[in-house]
Design a protein that fits this description.
With about 375 residues, the protein is an alpha+beta fold. Helices cover about 50% and strands about 15% of the residues. The protein has a four-stranded mixed beta sheet, with helices on one face. Strands 2-3-7-6 form a four-stranded antiparallel beta sheet, with no helix packed on it. Strands 9-10 form a two-stranded antiparallel ribbon.
Length: about 375
């Protein structure tokens, strides 16, 4: 039997993280971050590193704290509750891939808070399938020349390093994907920030004969799809945890508001119809948490994860959207106001529902994992 509850130490970590975010990342700070072209707070990033959050899933042998992806998932839930724009889940997912590739020098910089690395996988076809990868990686005498376009890369305009997927050969094979590290300021790389609905910024990356050294390969040439899929699954699992945290916070905000709001001489929470809606929201929040934690557990244990991750991403997306849609209705007019905090969660839910693949895309992954 899988125990998806938190241990005593994890409960202490959760409480510590929640207290830190409540103090250092109130909604006034998040408003400033969203209006900042950088899209995240370097000061908060340094504080997260100092607290050991960036070291959490890495072993002590490379300077980590010997935690697990489950601990990182716990922190992702708290980041989702706070609605804080941060490249945390992206850098953790990419960092674990670099660890497996033996790039401990880069992992040490991540842990210190000196390096932000994000996966750059999405292209014109955003589906998480091998055939969607088109970026050309042409072998040259001193490495590879990259040409093409990546779209909707979260924190792509702020990252110091990009973990890119592309094609270096064997054009007839869908699975012949190659992974390459590219510096964010590499000559020939054009980064254009895109307007997004949610809090996490995204960018379009144009590669115009960008040169990368042979030593920047992650894994073997043309054999990068399993690595890419594992990185993608880790990131999706952490994203599901983030969405679950947001769903839980929306539920708690709504319950408190209905207790306070008086309508027809009674608290809104005393109406049975309102209680039914809140109960449905609670069921969805519980389901999102359990699905996300199972997905993170599966990836932490080195399992394939396609079924667990696909189910978690789809269900957490549906739960988050269900929660914010009902929360807006129960809040009434104030739920539509930008001055009120609910709008942060509404925008993020609508954005995260489609980022890294739609619900339908992930349900297809579930079906394939079941052999359907």
């Amino acid at each position: 039997m899988i125990d998806l509850g938190w241990s005593e130490a994890q409960t202490m970590l959760r409480d510590s993280a929640r207290g830190f975010l409540a103090k250092e990342a109130p909604k006034s700070v998040i408003r400033r971050i969203e209006s900042d072209p950088l899209g995240y707070s370097p000061a908060l990033w340094r504080q997260m590193a100092a607290l050991g959050w960036l070291a959490m899933p890495f072993p002590e042998s490379v300077g980590g704290v010997g935690g697990s992806l489950i601990d990182a998932g716990l922190l992702a839930e708290e980041l989702g509750r706070a609605c804080l724009p941060s490249p945390y889940i992206h850098t953790v997912a990419a960092g674990l891939t670099l660890l497996e590739a033996g790039r401990t020098d880069l992992v040490a910089k991540i842990i210190a808070g000196d390096l932000i690395v994000v996966p750059a996988f999405s292209e014109a076809d955003p589906r998480p399938i091998p055939s969607a990868v088109k970026l050309a990686m042409t072998p040259v005498s001193d490495g590879y020349r990259l040409s093409g376009l990546k779209r909707f890369v979260e924190y792509g305009d702020a990252a110091h390093l990009l973990l890119c997927s592309g094609r270096a050969g064997q054009a007839g094979s869908d699975d012949a994907v190659t992974l390459m590290l590219v510096a964010g300021d590499a000559p020939g790389l054009a980064r254009r920030r895109l307007a997004t609905t949610g809090g996490d910024p995204a960018a379009e990356l144009g590669f115009e004969s960008v040169l990368a050294a042979a030593g920047d390969l992650v894994g073997e040439r043309d054999r990068g799809w399993p690595i890419m899929e594992r990185t993608f699954n880790r990131l999706c699992a952490l994203r599901a945890a983030e969405m679950a945290g947001g769903t839980r916070q929306v539920l708690e905000m709504t319950v408190e508001y209905t207790k306070m709001r008086v309508q027809f001489g009674r608290a809104l929470a005393t109406f049975q119809a309102v209680q039914h809606i809140c109960a449905d929201m609670a069921i969805m929040a519980d389901g999102a948490e359990l699905a996300a934690r199972q997905a993170v557990w599966a990836m932490d244990r080195g399992l394939g994860g396609n079924f667990e991750v696909g189910a978690a991403k789809a269900f957490a997306g549906q739960a988050y959207t269900f929660a914010v849609s009902n929360a807006v209705q129960l809040h009434g007019g104030i739920g539509y106001m930008e001055e009120y905090d609910l709008q942060f969660y509404y925008r993020r839910a609508r954005s995260e529902e489609v980022m890294m693949g739609t619900n339908e895309d992930h349900l297809e992954r579930v079906a394939r994992a079941l052999g359907l």
